[in-house]
From TrEMBL:
<dbReference type="InterPro" id="IPR009057">
    <property type="entry name" value="Homeodomain-like_sf"/>
</dbReference>
<dbReference type="InterPro" id="IPR000281">
    <property type="entry name" value="HTH_RpiR"/>
</dbReference>
<dbReference type="GO" id="GO:1901135">
    <property type="term" value="P:carbohydrate derivative metabolic process"/>
</dbReference>
<dbReference type="InterPro" id="IPR046348">
    <property type="entry name" value="SIS_dom_sf"/>
</dbReference>
<protein>
    <submittedName>
        <fullName>Uncharacterized protein</fullName>
    </submittedName>
</protein>
<dbReference type="GO" id="GO:0003677">
    <property type="term" value="F:DNA binding"/>
</dbReference>
<dbReference type="Pfam" id="PF01380">
    <property type="entry name" value="SIS"/>
</dbReference>
<dbReference type="GO" id="GO:0097367">
    <property type="term" value="F:carbohydrate derivative binding"/>
</dbReference>
<keyword id="KW-0804">Transcription</keyword>
<dbReference type="Pfam" id="PF01418">
    <property type="entry name" value="HTH_6"/>
</dbReference>
<keyword id="KW-0805">Transcription regulation</keyword>
<feature type="domain" description="SIS">
    <location>
        <begin position="123"/>
        <end position="263"/>
    </location>
</feature>
<keyword id="KW-0238">DNA-binding</keyword>
<dbReference type="GO" id="GO:0003700">
    <property type="term" value="F:DNA-binding transcription factor activity"/>
</dbReference>
<feature type="domain" description="HTH rpiR-type">
    <location>
        <begin position="2"/>
        <end position="78"/>
    </location>
</feature>
<dbReference type="InterPro" id="IPR035472">
    <property type="entry name" value="RpiR-like_SIS"/>
</dbReference>
<dbReference type="InterPro" id="IPR036388">
    <property type="entry name" value="WH-like_DNA-bd_sf"/>
</dbReference>
Length: 281
């Protein structure tokens, strides 16, 4: 199948005036379009989410996410590799592996160096004393949120995570001062994630934010902020390494909370381990 940009070029003359506005933006800004959600693309092209949805389906994609994934893939082809700092198309596989591993290690080390122990202590106290723990994250950041849920689910803490934005929003409005939320966003400015964060703040829910940008809206909405650092300057490549740092932060919070809870959570962990073991041959 042709790339999204090729499909748009091929069908451009047959598109409606509204669809041409969307197509023109995507063709001229494929990277930005691949990182946008449907609301952002509709806003920047002065159209509607319905128009964007109809266009991508006209091109043969099942939904907007499928379209943006295909668009993102075209940005990762060899001719576009300069967006990855320090990686050249002529590098050997071993050299590429070394650079990726080194960057990943630096991201985790820089993240740890930038977090004060007092911040960990404040966050852990919020977590172990909360009534319910909600984990929120969308797009690439949903990986860290889901990983955190999978870990805290093994403890006696009542926790939840849902991948769907609407469900996250509904869960956010049900939380209160006695609860706690961990909100993850690499950029710290995803519109839907910020809507969740704003809802949590209105409900006076303590928010632990994990983002790569200390001046981002998410950081400003958070009671406690952890900055996932990386040594990359490009948004896309930076997201690769900051995800590892986000996972390390979540792992650290889980382990600290588990140790501090002691016997209170040992039975829950043991019961979960036993039931999982019973499914293995």
């Amino acid at each position: 199948m042709s790339s999204p940009v090729q499909l748009l070029k091929q069908s451009f003359d047959e598109l409606s005036r509204t669809n041409k506005k969307i197509a023109k933006y995507v063709m001229e800004n494929p990277q930005a379009a691949s990182e946008a959600n449907i609301e952002d693309l509709a806003e920047v092209t002065e159209t509607s989410t319905a128009s964007v949805s109809r266009l991508v389906k006209t091109l043969g994609y099942g939904n907007f996410r499928e379209f943006t994934l295909a668009l993102a893939y075209t940005q990762l082809r060899p001719q576009n590799l300069p967006i990855f700092k320090d990686i050249d198309a002529n590098d050997s596989l071993g050299t590429i592996a070394d650079k990726i591993f080194n960057s990943s290690q630096r991201a985790i080390q820089d993240t740890r160096a930038g977090i004060d122990e007092d911040e960990f202590a404040r966050a852990v106290l919020r977590i172990i004393h909360c009534r319910r723990l909600g984990l929120f994250g969308l797009g690439g950041s949903s990986v860290a949120a889901l990983d955190g849920y999978h870990k805290f689910l093994r403890t006696s803490i009542d926790c939840f995570y849902y991948p769907d934005f609407d469900v996250q929003l509904m869960e956010a409005v049900k939380l209160g001062e006695e609860d706690c939320a961990i909100v993850v966003s690499h950029s710290g400015k995803n519109r839907q994630t910020l809507k969740v964060a704003e809802t949590l703040k209105k409900r006076k829910v303590p928010v632990i934010g994990i983002t790569s940008y200390p001046d981002s809206p998410l950081a400003l909405h958070s009671d406690i902020t952890f900055i996932s650092s990386s040594d990359e300057s490009n948004y896309r490549s930076e997201g690769m390494y900051s995800l590892l740092a986000q996972l390390a932060i979540v792992d650290t919070l889980f382990m600290m909370a588990t140790v501090r809870m002691g016997p209170a959570t040992e039975d829950a962990i043991r019961n979960v381990q036993n039931i999982i073991e019973s499914t293995r041959t």
